[in-house]
Amino acid sequence: MGVTDKVWDALTTVIKMNDKVVSLAGTVKEQQTKIENLTERVIRLEATLEIALRLSPDQKRIGN
Questions:
Q1: pTM to 2 decimals?
Q2: What is residue 1's predicted lDDT score, i.e. its pLDDT?
Q3: What mean pLDDT do residues 7-15 have?
Q4: CA distance 12 to 6
Q5: What is the DSSP string of 1-64?
Q6: CA-CA distance, 42 to 30, in Å (whole number)?
Q7: Cβ of 7: how many Cβ atoms within 10 Å?
């Protein structure tokens, strides 16, 4: 294998790796968005639970 072939193989490998990194970055961005949406939902659920517990003082509180 000549030097030209080795250089060509190296460049091909770098281009393939770059494509994979770009694809992975897109996947990570999508996952981050999903995590942020789930976090918002959990916060809303916690707030709703707090309000419900405060509005019904005759009910036993969780953990008390």
A1: 0.62
A2: 72
A3: 96
A4: 10
A5: --HHHHHHHHHHHHHHHHHHHHHHHHHHHHHHHHHHHHHHHHHHHHHHHHHHHHH-TTSPPTT-
A6: 19
A7: 10
